[in-house]
Amino acid sequence: MELTDRVAVVTGAGGGIGRALVTALAGAGARVVATDVGVPDAPIAALARPLDVTDADATAALVAEVEREIGPVDVFLANAGVAAGTDPVDTPDDVWDTVLDVNVRAHIAAAKVLLPGWLERGEGYFVATASAAGLLTQIGSAPYAVSKHAAVAFAEWLSVTYGARGVRVSTLAPMGVATAMLDTGADEGGMSAAATGAVRAAGEVLSPEAVADAVVAGIAREEFLILPHPEVLTFFRRKADDYERWLAGMRRLQDSVTRSAE
Question: Do the beta carbons of residue 186 and residue 142 sit within 8 Å?
């Protein structure tokens, strides 16, 4: 998709990848709407609005406002995300609910609002920020791993179901990115120590700007998998080629990270 004059909505635009996406999309000529729980500081955006992505009515209201003020949404980047919790035994139900609401159900709510218009016009673009954890797994956080797998699965379903009717879909699946999620602890909405250790051990930690540039390039090529860390594809292929061997290797990584965190 050519982004010039396209209307693009970015959730989770208050920092990290989201803020970098606003800048990169605007640089590519899009008219960008920046959203976050608090009004994001995004002077380059055409609109900056508060949005709780877990509130389906608020998402519908935002899309309606954008249509009135700027025009129909062409690209929706479901970027807001949280990392919290550890294993299923120690993670409270309310934490599971929060992670699933932000990382998965918010994508579903946005799609429900956007799909009727996209199908009527015969085009639209949905970009889901998942993670390499959505293709592989996440050491240390069951809610994060499960929710990101679900985000990838929902994006796949959208592409399979509506791709022939003009709806394009991409899934962003990076490894380590230098954001607050990586640097803060699980109690503050970031990754656990084990998860952070695993991410840093897996490969290079990229800047949000590098990831945003990869997204813009991926949209231009209309790629389903946007992989700022190309080695993720190698790991994904190894998983598919020999699942048992891959699981054994991940267990070794789990043991190594656990020992280093002690």
Answer: no
243 labelled catalytic: no
Phi/psi for 242 (5° steps) reads -150, 85
Dist CA 205 CA 199 (whole Å) = 8
| Residue 248 counted as domain residue | no
Q: What is the pLDDT of residues 128-158, one digit of tens each?
A: 999 999 999 999 889 999 999 999 999 999 9
Residue 258 lies inside a defined structural domain of this protein: no
Q: What is the pTM of this model?
A: 0.90
For 175, other C-beta atoms within 10 Å of its C-beta total 22
Q: Are 226 and 170 in contact (CB under 8 A)?
A: yes
Q: Is residue 250 part of a domain?
A: no
The domain that holds 79 is classified in CATH as 3.40.50.720
DSSP class of 177: B
Number of structural domains (the chain) is 1
Range in 19-23, 38-42, 214-218 with the lowest mean pLDDT: 38-42
Of residues 125, 144, 162, 243, which has the active-site annotation?
144
Please check whether residue 206 lies inside any domain of the structure: yes
pLDDT digits (tens, 9 = 90+) for 197-219: 555 555 789 999 999 999 999 99
Q: Which domain holds residue 102?
A: 7-234
CB burial of 217-247 (b: ≥16 within 10 Å; e: otherwise) equals: ebbeeebebbbbbeebeebbeebeeeeeebe
